[in-house]
Automatic annotation (TrEMBL):
Keyword Hydrolase: yes
BP GO terms, sorted: regulation of intracellular signal transduction
GO molecular function: protein serine/threonine phosphatase activity
Protein name: Phosphatase 2C family protein
Gene3D superfamilies per UniProt: PPM-type phosphatase domain
SUPFAM superfamilies in alphabetical order: PP2C-like
Entry annotated with the keyword Hydrolase: yes
CDD domains per the UniProt record, alphabetical: PP2Cc
Family annotation (SMART domains): PP2Cc
Amino acid sequence: MGNFCSCQVSIIGKVHDVEYDECDQKDIDFTSENGGSQVMFKGSSKSISMYCKKGTKGINQDAITVWEDFGGEKDTIFCGVFDGHGPLGHKFAQCIRDNLPSKLSTTIKMSQQNVDGANATNKNTYDEDKQHLSCTSWEKHLFSSFNEMDEDLAKNIAKTDGFCGGSVAVTLIKQGDQLIIGNLGDSRAVLCTKADDNHLIPIQLSTDLVPDVPNEAKRVINCGGRVFAAKEDPDVKRIWMAEGDCPGLAMSRAFGDFCLKEYGLSSVPDVSHRKITKQDEFVVLASDGVWNALSNIEVITIVASAPKRSLAAKLLVKRAVQAWKQKNPCYHVDDCSAICLFLNDQPVNLRGNKRHR
């Protein structure tokens, strides 16, 4: 597999089709066990492509993870993209990547043990036929694990290194024919589905939780925080403390950033779900470095045009970097990360005709 570089990406469970540059630290960074996270390669899968490329700002603050057979269930996959910010953003993103999935899995197992111990059949907890967790239960467990994760960050990172930075997160669980999305901040999940004429259509599965959203701004203002754009960046509304020009956070929900939690910044995820249909092709999870450079339709078009699935995420990130340089030649290129989760056995091209991998 080549040499390991610095620690940004982890794969738990079965190995996936991952394209990466073996010794290019700017591109893909696998996590070794010595780096504080598990990497296990077992079997193979054709359903996932993932790629991460360091930007030009400094240390890579993106982190991504995929857990196959999540919670011990063979038909369940967990995917997560975490985009850190601030001086300690990389620490926040890496810690969340390494711990959030296990917290969620533990929460689920404890809930299942409680149900089994009571010898009860709770229709609000399990699907009657497949004994899967219901969407209501997933929402409950996501709320619990996100809250526990934020509390741990406050105790471990913020306590020792100060309140410098945090991380957004977009997570997706595929359980059978259900997709459950948990989102904090401005990373995004977009589904590609086919129309009746076989043209591809993007469906945004998550909401960008930023101060521009009226309900998000209202919560911040009601808590005593302020929302306005800085003079040097008039197009981006930010969250500020009641007094002083800090920290100017461009998202309204995030892990960390504890100086803003009493002013309306929230670590409660926005949870949504969707039942997979025969028309649904794939889901793309990506950090804002991708979405700020490419539109939803551009993203799914690029992924669908990849010559093979294992190249999809790499192609997408490379195109995002190119677009970023063209649109913002005077700005540093942001870190760009993407996970492509394919939902069917055979890929389609842009006109809906089946093609070989």
